[in-house]
Amino acid sequence: MGSITLKMQHPALYSEAGDVVRLFYGDTPLTLYREGDMEPEADVMIVQRARREGEGYLHEAVLTGPDRAPLTAAYCQQEMGEGTLEQKRYFKYGVKIVLYHLLTQATGKAMPWGSLTGIRPTKLAYELLAQGRSVQQAAQYLKDTFDVSREKADLLFQILKAQQGIVCHESFRQLDVYVGIPFCPSRCTYCSFAACDIRKNRKWVEPYLAALHHEIKVCGQMARQAGWQVRAVYLGGGTPTAISAQQLCALLEAVNLAFPGAAEVTVEAGRPDSIDRDKLRALRDAGVSRVSINPQTMNGETLMRMGRTHTPEQIVQAFALAREAGFEAINMDLIAGLPGESAQDMARTLRQIAALAPDNLTVHTLAMKRASKLKEEKGRYSLPSGEEVLKMLEAARAAAAEWGMEPYYLYRQKYMTGNFENIGYSLPGKACIYNIDIMEETHSILALGAGGISKWVYPAENRLERTPNVKNIEQYIARVDEMIARKEPRLCGTLLDRPETVIV
Ligand code: SF4
């Protein structure tokens, strides 16, 4: 198909409606048509409208095209939630549901997550339970309302069960701290993070760390004075272990001083080519409890194609060094759907990972992120089909179960192959608190460093506020005091000064 036009009575919801259309039509160019715009010449036109009916809305959608009979769908929405924000959210659901019904008819396809896009499905599941539904009723509601498959609904409630005792909705004055190191040994082609190649940017490392130390110190003072308790600390990026052992030591010392009392400290040691014995020892001595060593795949050719400057053998060595240093919680990340890979490659990777016996496994589905080289040069790569990726994800799920792991968090991203998901698996008792907190959005996150986005949780209103730091390293160094000032009102309590009602 050449192009699609969306004609919307509610153009403010164009982005959400576009997400649903893309589930079915992928990268097909999509434009918004507003009243008064030039009549479009798209192959397909989708019209969205809604009108009040009783307490709710009647949503309608129509699809027309040159060589087809018009298709229509209607969805009568009675449940609208309470309060303006809730009602807006429910209305948005209604628009997406009717478009989903229309496009299911048009294509004959169904999606595993139904019309759920841009939403954390576990959050919705918690909400349904909090409304008084049983697990069975909530699963049925997800199926009936959003067309979520039975398998995905079961997965959600399995995750909620695994989170019991860790997830905490009573988050008043508790926060997690994220510290970003935006340097990596090289840049992976699929990367969309604010991470740069340390080989070309060494001159920025010291000034960056000086600015970061300053932000850590000042924000730590503010947080302690305002009575925040720190639940978990996470050093990510980038690859924190790309800096030297000495620099890591100094950084962790500063973090421990500024934010004492964390129950968990995690460091992304993602790239094996950034790890050595000294660094791992420095991490252990500084109280780091968890590390992540990420193969993504154990296929050396794919690693090379993806711009990762390490071999599968280095993964095995780095893992052994981490165990030798005493780490008892080691995560490994894999990506399903990497260019040129098949289900057989995933099976081979899983066999090699099994021999290492990690404590956590995180399985991502490849997402074509806008800022990535992979997206820019998409034509150069051959991507596995959605069916092949599904086989990979199923193989990973079976392997994790065989190793005694259970899924404990899940999230979805835009532009993901096959509309699947990312799942974190864990051995019993080895789940990462920070991962649960950030996915369930139960705790405020204080994010320090370039590209960090602090999130302030208002559970009573079921909403978040974000305070981003600039992504650019030079800008961050020059404007670190401004980054601190942006966070000050919330960190010092002037905007978060009341105990909040608990949702669940
Ligand atoms: S290691 Fe991670 S952060 Fe660094 S370039 Fe690769 S994907 Fe990006």
Molecular structure report:
The strands form four sheets. Strands 14-15-13-12-11-10-9-6-16 form a nine-stranded mixed β-sheet, with helices on both faces. It is of the alpha/beta class and 504 residues long. The chain is globular. The protein has 16 helices and 18 strands. Helix content is 39%, strand content 22%. Strand 4 and strand 5 form a beta hairpin. The chain has helices at residues 14-25, 83-107, 121-130, 135-146, 150-163, 205-225, 245-258, 277-285, 300-305, 312-324, 343-356, 373-376, 386-402, 433-440, 473-478, 480-491; strands at 4-8, 30-33, 44-53, 56-65, 68-77, 174-181, 183-184, 196-197, 229-237, 264-268, 290-292, 330-336, 360-365, 406-411, 422-426, 444-448, 453-458, 463-468. The chain has two domains: 1-109, Maf protein (Alpha-Beta Complex); 174-491, tm_1862 like domain (pyruvate-formate lyase- activating enzyme, Alpha-Beta Horseshoe). The two termini are 45 Å apart. Residues 497-504 have low confidence and may be disordered. Bound molecules: iron/sulfur cluster. It is an enzyme of class 1 (oxidoreductase). Keywords: Iron, Iron-sulfur, Metal-binding, Oxidoreductase, S-adenosyl-L-methionine. It comes from Luoshenia tenuis. GO terms for molecular function: 4 iron, 4 sulfur cluster binding; coproporphyrinogen dehydrogenase activity; metal ion binding. InterPro entries: Aldolase_TIM, Coproporphyrinogen-III_oxidase, Elp3/MiaA/NifB-like_rSAM, HemZ, rSAM, rSAM_sf.
